[in-house]
Amino acid sequence: MTQTIPESFLGVGYTSHRAGLPLEAVRFHVPQPSADQVLIRVAASSLNPLEYKLADLNFMGRTPPVALGLDLAGVVIAVGHAVGGVDVGDTVTAMADLNGDGGWVATSGNKDVGGYALARQFLTVHKPASLSFRDAAALPMCFLSAFAGLYPAAQAGDTVYIPGGGGGVGHLAVQMAARALGAGSVISSGSTPESIALARQSGAHHVFDYKRDDIPAEIAKLTGGRGVDLVFDATYSEHSFVEAAKTVRRGGSWIVLGVGPGKTTRLAETRSPVSTILAERAAKHVNVNLLRYFSEPATLDSEARAFLQRGMALAMEWAEQGLVCRN
Protein backbone atom coordinates (compact mmCIF):
# COMPACT_ATOMS: atom_id res chain seq x y z
CA MET A 1 0.00 0.00 0.00
CA THR A 2 1.39 3.41 -0.91
CA GLN A 3 0.60 6.65 0.82
CA THR A 4 1.08 10.17 -0.47
CA ILE A 5 3.37 11.95 1.95
CA PRO A 6 3.53 15.76 1.81
CA GLU A 7 6.71 17.69 2.44
CA SER A 8 5.34 19.63 5.40
CA PHE A 9 2.42 20.06 7.79
CA LEU A 10 1.08 22.83 9.99
CA GLY A 11 1.92 21.83 13.56
CA VAL A 12 1.34 23.43 16.95
CA GLY A 13 4.07 23.98 19.51
CA TYR A 14 6.46 26.50 20.99
CA THR A 15 8.56 28.75 18.80
CA SER A 16 10.97 30.39 21.23
CA HIS A 17 12.71 29.52 24.49
CA ARG A 18 10.46 29.76 27.58
CA ALA A 19 7.55 30.59 25.28
CA GLY A 20 4.85 29.09 27.48
CA LEU A 21 1.22 29.35 26.45
CA PRO A 22 -0.51 30.10 24.17
CA LEU A 23 1.19 27.84 21.68
CA GLU A 24 1.67 28.82 18.07
CA ALA A 25 1.16 27.26 14.67
CA VAL A 26 4.25 26.69 12.55
CA ARG A 27 5.01 24.68 9.45
CA PHE A 28 7.17 21.58 10.00
CA HIS A 29 8.87 19.27 7.51
CA VAL A 30 7.52 15.72 7.48
CA PRO A 31 10.39 13.55 8.81
CA GLN A 32 11.56 10.21 7.51
CA PRO A 33 11.68 7.14 9.80
CA SER A 34 15.00 5.68 10.93
CA ALA A 35 15.54 1.92 11.17
CA ASP A 36 13.34 1.32 14.25
CA GLN A 37 10.75 4.06 13.70
CA VAL A 38 7.36 4.37 12.09
CA LEU A 39 5.93 7.50 10.49
CA ILE A 40 2.31 8.09 11.47
CA ARG A 41 -0.32 10.27 9.82
CA VAL A 42 -1.92 11.62 12.97
CA ALA A 43 -5.69 11.39 13.36
CA ALA A 44 -5.78 12.50 17.01
CA SER A 45 -3.26 13.76 19.53
CA SER A 46 -3.49 14.84 23.15
CA LEU A 47 -1.61 17.45 25.14
CA ASN A 48 -0.18 16.59 28.58
CA PRO A 49 0.95 18.79 31.50
CA LEU A 50 4.54 17.70 30.80
CA GLU A 51 4.21 19.30 27.39
CA TYR A 52 3.04 22.56 28.96
CA LYS A 53 6.25 22.46 31.00
CA LEU A 54 8.31 21.80 27.89
CA ALA A 55 6.77 24.88 26.30
CA ASP A 56 7.21 27.00 29.41
CA LEU A 57 10.72 25.93 30.41
CA ASN A 58 12.21 24.09 27.41
CA PHE A 59 14.06 22.06 30.04
CA MET A 60 15.30 19.59 27.42
CA GLY A 61 17.15 22.34 25.58
CA ARG A 62 15.41 21.79 22.25
CA THR A 63 15.97 24.33 19.48
CA PRO A 64 12.55 25.84 18.70
CA PRO A 65 10.25 25.54 16.89
CA VAL A 66 9.12 22.29 18.56
CA ALA A 67 5.84 20.54 17.72
CA LEU A 68 3.95 19.12 20.69
CA GLY A 69 1.31 16.39 20.83
CA LEU A 70 3.46 13.41 21.80
CA ASP A 71 0.59 11.01 22.54
CA LEU A 72 -1.10 10.17 19.29
CA ALA A 73 -3.14 7.77 17.20
CA GLY A 74 -3.33 7.47 13.45
CA VAL A 75 -2.32 5.49 10.38
CA VAL A 76 1.18 4.22 9.58
CA ILE A 77 2.41 5.67 6.29
CA ALA A 78 6.08 4.59 6.34
CA VAL A 79 8.29 2.23 8.36
CA GLY A 80 12.02 1.88 8.97
CA HIS A 81 13.85 -1.11 7.52
CA ALA A 82 14.19 -2.86 10.90
CA VAL A 83 10.50 -2.55 11.83
CA GLY A 84 8.43 -5.73 12.03
CA GLY A 85 4.87 -6.35 13.10
CA VAL A 86 3.67 -2.91 12.03
CA ASP A 87 2.89 -2.21 8.38
CA VAL A 88 1.92 0.73 6.22
CA GLY A 89 -1.82 1.22 6.48
CA ASP A 90 -2.14 -0.09 10.05
CA THR A 91 -4.11 2.00 12.56
CA VAL A 92 -1.97 2.49 15.66
CA THR A 93 -1.55 4.26 18.96
CA ALA A 94 1.92 5.57 19.78
CA MET A 95 4.05 7.91 21.80
CA ALA A 96 6.64 10.11 20.11
CA ASP A 97 10.01 10.85 21.72
CA LEU A 98 10.05 13.87 24.02
CA ASN A 99 13.20 14.99 22.21
CA GLY A 100 11.40 14.75 18.86
CA ASP A 101 8.40 16.48 17.34
CA GLY A 102 4.84 15.43 18.08
CA GLY A 103 1.82 15.43 15.84
CA TRP A 104 -0.47 18.10 17.28
CA VAL A 105 -1.78 20.06 14.32
CA ALA A 106 -3.24 23.41 13.48
CA THR A 107 -6.66 23.61 11.87
CA SER A 108 -7.98 25.47 8.86
CA GLY A 109 -11.50 26.54 9.77
CA ASN A 110 -13.17 23.32 10.90
CA LYS A 111 -10.97 21.15 8.70
CA ASP A 112 -8.00 19.31 10.19
CA VAL A 113 -5.06 19.87 7.84
CA GLY A 114 -3.10 16.90 9.14
CA GLY A 115 -0.08 16.10 11.25
CA TYR A 116 2.81 13.64 11.06
CA ALA A 117 5.04 12.20 13.76
CA LEU A 118 7.71 9.57 14.27
CA ALA A 119 7.47 6.93 16.99
CA ARG A 120 9.69 4.05 18.03
CA GLN A 121 8.37 0.63 17.13
CA PHE A 122 8.27 -0.45 20.80
CA LEU A 123 6.09 2.57 21.64
CA THR A 124 3.70 1.83 18.76
CA VAL A 125 0.86 -0.69 19.06
CA HIS A 126 -2.19 -1.59 17.00
CA LYS A 127 -5.31 0.34 17.91
CA PRO A 128 -8.43 -1.78 18.51
CA ALA A 129 -11.17 -1.06 15.99
CA SER A 130 -13.64 -0.47 18.83
CA LEU A 131 -11.50 2.33 20.29
CA SER A 132 -11.71 5.78 18.71
CA PHE A 133 -8.58 7.61 17.61
CA ARG A 134 -9.38 10.30 20.18
CA ASP A 135 -9.72 7.90 23.11
CA ALA A 136 -6.61 5.96 22.10
CA ALA A 137 -4.50 9.11 21.78
CA ALA A 138 -5.39 10.21 25.31
CA LEU A 139 -3.74 7.21 26.98
CA PRO A 140 0.00 6.59 26.41
CA MET A 141 1.94 8.96 28.68
CA CYS A 142 -0.41 8.90 31.67
CA PHE A 143 -1.15 5.19 31.33
CA LEU A 144 2.54 4.26 31.18
CA SER A 145 3.23 6.44 34.23
CA ALA A 146 0.59 4.58 36.26
CA PHE A 147 1.61 1.23 34.77
CA ALA A 148 5.29 1.66 35.68
CA GLY A 149 4.36 2.37 39.30
CA LEU A 150 1.67 -0.23 39.87
CA TYR A 151 2.16 -3.16 37.50
CA PRO A 152 5.41 -4.51 38.99
CA ALA A 153 4.31 -3.93 42.59
CA ALA A 154 0.57 -4.39 43.13
CA GLN A 155 -0.65 -7.83 44.18
CA ALA A 156 -4.18 -9.17 44.02
CA GLY A 157 -5.96 -8.40 47.29
CA ASP A 158 -3.67 -5.49 48.25
CA THR A 159 -4.99 -2.41 50.00
CA VAL A 160 -3.73 0.49 47.89
CA TYR A 161 -3.72 4.23 48.54
CA ILE A 162 -3.54 6.50 45.49
CA PRO A 163 -3.56 10.21 46.44
CA GLY A 164 -5.01 12.53 43.81
CA GLY A 165 -7.28 9.94 42.22
CA GLY A 166 -8.93 12.64 40.12
CA GLY A 167 -5.66 13.61 38.41
CA GLY A 168 -4.47 12.63 34.95
CA VAL A 169 -2.22 9.81 36.15
CA GLY A 170 -4.14 9.28 39.39
CA HIS A 171 -7.52 8.34 37.90
CA LEU A 172 -5.87 5.85 35.55
CA ALA A 173 -3.94 4.39 38.48
CA VAL A 174 -7.19 3.98 40.44
CA GLN A 175 -8.83 2.23 37.48
CA MET A 176 -5.81 0.02 36.97
CA ALA A 177 -5.61 -1.04 40.62
CA ALA A 178 -9.34 -1.53 41.11
CA ARG A 179 -10.35 -3.09 37.79
CA ALA A 180 -7.30 -4.69 36.19
CA LEU A 181 -4.86 -5.66 38.95
CA GLY A 182 -7.35 -7.02 41.49
CA ALA A 183 -6.63 -4.77 44.48
CA GLY A 184 -8.75 -5.72 47.47
CA SER A 185 -9.39 -2.10 48.41
CA VAL A 186 -8.47 1.16 46.68
CA ILE A 187 -8.36 4.35 48.73
CA SER A 188 -7.93 7.78 47.17
CA SER A 189 -8.20 11.49 47.89
CA GLY A 190 -9.04 14.80 46.25
CA SER A 191 -9.77 18.41 47.09
CA THR A 192 -12.74 19.36 44.92
CA PRO A 193 -16.13 17.75 44.39
CA GLU A 194 -15.13 17.04 40.79
CA SER A 195 -11.85 15.30 41.61
CA ILE A 196 -13.44 13.29 44.42
CA ALA A 197 -16.27 12.23 42.10
CA LEU A 198 -13.81 11.19 39.38
CA ALA A 199 -11.79 9.09 41.84
CA ARG A 200 -14.99 7.31 42.91
CA GLN A 201 -16.11 6.89 39.30
CA SER A 202 -12.71 5.38 38.52
CA GLY A 203 -13.24 2.63 41.09
CA ALA A 204 -11.93 3.91 44.43
CA HIS A 205 -13.75 2.32 47.35
CA HIS A 206 -13.02 5.19 49.75
CA VAL A 207 -12.19 8.79 48.80
CA PHE A 208 -11.16 11.45 51.33
CA ASP A 209 -10.95 15.22 51.08
CA TYR A 210 -7.30 15.96 51.79
CA LYS A 211 -8.08 19.58 52.77
CA ARG A 212 -10.54 18.48 55.43
CA ASP A 213 -9.79 14.91 56.49
CA ASP A 214 -6.91 13.52 58.54
CA ILE A 215 -6.12 10.90 55.93
CA PRO A 216 -3.51 8.88 57.89
CA ALA A 217 -5.97 8.62 60.78
CA GLU A 218 -8.86 7.67 58.49
CA ILE A 219 -6.80 5.01 56.74
CA ALA A 220 -5.67 3.64 60.12
CA LYS A 221 -9.36 3.22 61.01
CA LEU A 222 -10.14 1.49 57.72
CA THR A 223 -7.23 -0.93 58.06
CA GLY A 224 -7.47 -1.65 61.79
CA GLY A 225 -4.25 0.29 62.42
CA ARG A 226 -2.25 -1.82 59.97
CA GLY A 227 -1.88 0.65 57.10
CA VAL A 228 -1.93 0.06 53.36
CA ASP A 229 0.19 -2.42 51.46
CA LEU A 230 1.13 0.06 48.78
CA VAL A 231 0.99 3.79 48.10
CA PHE A 232 1.34 5.17 44.58
CA ASP A 233 1.75 8.96 44.72
CA ALA A 234 1.81 10.97 41.49
CA THR A 235 0.82 14.31 43.03
CA TYR A 236 4.22 16.08 42.98
CA SER A 237 3.27 17.56 46.37
CA GLU A 238 5.58 17.46 49.39
CA HIS A 239 2.59 17.65 51.74
CA SER A 240 1.01 14.68 50.00
CA PHE A 241 4.29 12.75 50.13
CA VAL A 242 4.56 13.19 53.90
CA GLU A 243 0.93 12.35 54.63
CA ALA A 244 0.91 9.36 52.26
CA ALA A 245 4.10 7.93 53.79
CA LYS A 246 2.30 7.84 57.17
CA THR A 247 -0.28 5.42 55.74
CA VAL A 248 2.11 2.62 54.68
CA ARG A 249 2.05 -0.59 56.72
CA ARG A 250 5.21 -2.09 58.14
CA GLY A 251 7.12 -3.71 55.28
CA GLY A 252 4.87 -2.09 52.68
CA SER A 253 5.81 -0.08 49.61
CA TRP A 254 5.72 3.67 48.96
CA ILE A 255 6.03 4.42 45.25
CA VAL A 256 6.38 7.95 43.93
CA LEU A 257 6.23 9.18 40.35
CA GLY A 258 8.97 11.65 39.50
CA VAL A 259 11.87 13.08 41.46
CA GLY A 260 10.26 12.52 44.86
CA PRO A 261 10.41 14.06 48.35
CA GLY A 262 12.31 17.27 48.94
CA LYS A 263 12.58 18.01 45.23
CA THR A 264 9.17 19.32 44.30
CA THR A 265 10.43 22.88 43.87
CA ARG A 266 12.64 23.77 40.92
CA LEU A 267 14.49 26.37 42.97
CA ALA A 268 15.97 24.35 45.82
CA GLU A 269 16.01 20.92 47.37
CA THR A 270 14.38 20.86 50.80
CA ARG A 271 14.70 18.55 53.78
CA SER A 272 11.91 15.96 53.80
CA PRO A 273 10.85 13.62 56.63
CA VAL A 274 9.61 10.94 54.24
CA SER A 275 12.72 8.74 54.41
CA THR A 276 12.57 8.71 58.22
CA ILE A 277 8.85 7.88 58.22
CA LEU A 278 9.39 4.97 55.83
CA ALA A 279 12.46 3.71 57.70
CA GLU A 280 10.42 3.52 60.92
CA ARG A 281 8.04 1.21 59.05
CA ALA A 282 10.77 -0.77 57.27
CA ALA A 283 8.88 0.20 54.12
CA LYS A 284 10.27 0.15 50.62
CA HIS A 285 10.75 3.51 48.83
CA VAL A 286 10.56 3.29 45.03
CA ASN A 287 11.02 6.20 42.62
CA VAL A 288 9.47 5.80 39.18
CA ASN A 289 10.98 8.44 36.88
CA LEU A 290 10.13 7.92 33.23
CA LEU A 291 11.57 11.12 31.80
CA ARG A 292 14.66 9.35 30.41
CA TYR A 293 12.51 6.55 29.02
CA PHE A 294 10.45 9.08 27.09
CA SER A 295 13.25 11.47 26.13
CA GLU A 296 16.06 9.03 25.26
CA PRO A 297 14.32 5.84 24.08
CA ALA A 298 17.21 4.93 21.80
CA THR A 299 19.36 4.29 24.89
CA LEU A 300 17.01 1.77 26.52
CA ASP A 301 17.93 -1.89 26.80
CA SER A 302 15.75 -4.72 25.54
CA GLU A 303 14.15 -5.30 28.96
CA ALA A 304 13.05 -1.67 29.29
CA ARG A 305 11.72 -1.63 25.73
CA ALA A 306 9.77 -4.83 26.28
CA PHE A 307 8.27 -3.44 29.51
CA LEU A 308 7.06 -0.25 27.82
CA GLN A 309 5.72 -2.15 24.84
CA ARG A 310 3.83 -4.43 27.23
CA GLY A 311 2.38 -1.31 28.85
CA MET A 312 1.27 0.12 25.51
CA ALA A 313 -0.33 -3.19 24.54
CA LEU A 314 -2.18 -3.46 27.86
CA ALA A 315 -3.39 0.14 27.51
CA MET A 316 -5.20 -0.86 24.33
CA GLU A 317 -6.36 -4.22 25.70
CA TRP A 318 -7.74 -2.81 28.95
CA ALA A 319 -9.33 0.16 27.18
CA GLU A 320 -11.05 -2.19 24.74
CA GLN A 321 -12.35 -4.23 27.70
CA GLY A 322 -13.64 -1.07 29.41
CA LEU A 323 -11.24 -1.42 32.35
CA VAL A 324 -9.52 1.92 31.80
CA CYS A 325 -10.36 5.15 30.03
CA ARG A 326 -8.98 8.70 30.12
CA ASN A 327 -11.49 11.23 31.44
Automatic annotation (TrEMBL):
Keywords: NADP, Oxidoreductase. InterPro entries: ADH-like_C, ADH-like_N, ER, GroES-like_sf, NAD(P)-bd_dom_sf. Residues 20-314 form the Enoyl reductase (ER) domain. The keyword Oxidoreductase applies. One of its GO terms (molecular function) is oxidoreductase activity, acting on NAD(P)H. This is NADPH:quinone reductase-like Zn-dependent oxidoreductase.
